[in-house]
Amino acid sequence: MTKAQLLRLSVVLVSIFMILLIIVYWDNVGTAHFYLHTSVSRPQSPGAIPGITAGEGWETLPDMDEFLAKLLSSNLKQNNSIPQKTEQLLAQGSSKPVLTNLEERVRGYDWSTHNARNSLDQEKLQVERQRTLREFCANSSLTFPSKERSFDDIPNYELNHLIVDDRHGVIYCYVPKVACTNWKRVMIVLSESLLDHGVPYRNPLDIPREHVHNTSTHLTFNKFWRRYGKFSRHLMKIKMKKYTKFLFVRDPFVRLISAFRSKFELENEEFYQRFAIPMLKLYSNHTNIPTSVREAFEGGLRVSFYNFIQYLLDPRTEKMVPFNEHWRQIYRLCHPCQIDYDFIGKLETLDEDAAYLLQLLKVDRLFRFPPSYRNRTASSWEDDWFAKIPVAWRQKLYKLYEADFVLFGYPKPENLLKD
Q1: CA 148 to chain centre
Q2: Which terminal CB of the chain, N or C, has fewer other CB atoms within 10 Å?
Q3: Do the Cβ atoms of 267 and 295 come closer than 8 Å?
């Protein structure tokens, strides 16, 4: 055998070895359950290769994507059910939480039932919401930054809101101030990514808030590139083809009010230092600004909603740093024109949407979705909150969030935009 032949053989063997290593280490993020299906996943045709759906969408995958999908699916053992012991644990659990967080103690939970509103036709709602989204993504009359780019053009750091549960085949894009704390809790329970004394949490509300928002708790798309390098995008696209993808949205202006309430009306040292102090310096006449939020609140000094809107509209703001996730536009967090979401929920119909989604995911028998906050910011509050905001500012603010209004079917707030 010549040296050239030996060299080629060595290259082939090394390539096979590296592929096997990828398969082995894939288990670190639960990929043994990589091809689980849910009831809203694209169907698998009879006789197809395990894990590969014939027909819709798959023939368009690049060769490397198809190769990885076939290779992984032929070697990974599917498991379509939660182990019985785990299911029994999840089905149990306390009915009400111990409120340890200041925000949750202040706002409280609404444990009342909402059966009167359960008559909504969820299937039709989903069809309409997805139709609206897809139509406006394709409509050239609606323009906004990053609309025309492809999924491959999205930087990895912008994919940190996509949380993956490989056990059930679910991808959730979380939007702050849209019940994301409780949906993150649900994702932790489903993925069993966090243990309590060696046992996975079985009740979402038992999970302490500080663990819910710990980035190490969740597997996000942003972490893929650190693990898989050049293979990360291929693996992301395979999962997006096979998994159920969902997000929850909210009236953009009401979301802003909610963000202001929770981050600036409550004592939040982090947001005081990062945002309140700069706002007070730029937009108020105060000269001696307290160094701590406790001192500021005791002295009656707080950022006003007026100051907050000034900050959002100030062209200098995003030149210094991108919007914080609590008031960043949803289209910038979840990329709805690049990702084909299977389910679009709304906070305005949270109870019904959440119950329906858990049924579709076939996990509704395991736990109940955590209840809404008792005094959740309501749409009817908009007139009062914007009363002191000049109409010209409101119009500029609408343009800033117009894509979120239009893509997700929220009516233009004409009453706020006219003199």
Answers
A1: 21
A2: C
A3: no
Q: What angle do CA 30, 31, 35 make, to 5 degrees?
A: 125
Residue 80 has pLDDT above 80, yes or no: no
For residues 306-318, one letter each, b for 16 or more C-beta atoms within 10 angstroms of the residue's C-beta and e for the rest, the string is ebbbbbbbeeebe
Rounded CA separation 32/83 (Å): 14
Asked if residues 289 and 273 have their Cβ atoms less than 8 Å apart, the reply is no
**How many other CB atoms are there within 10 angstroms of residue 186's CB atom?**
24
Residue 137, exposed/middle/buried by CB under 10 A (0-12, 13-18, 19+)?
Answer: middle
> Are the beta carbons of 360 and 366 closer than 8 angstroms?
no
Answer for the pair 97, 206: CB distance below 8 angstroms, yes or no.
Answer: yes
- Pairing between β-strand 195-196 and β-strand 199-200 as defined by DSSP bridges: antiparallel
Tell me which H or E stretch contains 137. Answer: helix 122-138
For residue 82, the number of C-alpha atoms closer than 13 Å in the C-beta half-sphere is 25
47-58: per-residue pLDDT in tens? Answer: 332 333 333 333
7 membership: H or E segment, kind and range: helix 3-25
In b/e form, how buried is each residue of 37-56, taking b as 16+ CB within 10 angstroms?
A: bbebbbebeeeeeebbbeee
Cβ(275)–Cβ(260) below 8 Å: no
CB 171 within 8 A of CB 243: yes
Put residue 358 in one of left, alpha, beta given phi > 0 → left and psi -120 to 50 → alpha.
alpha
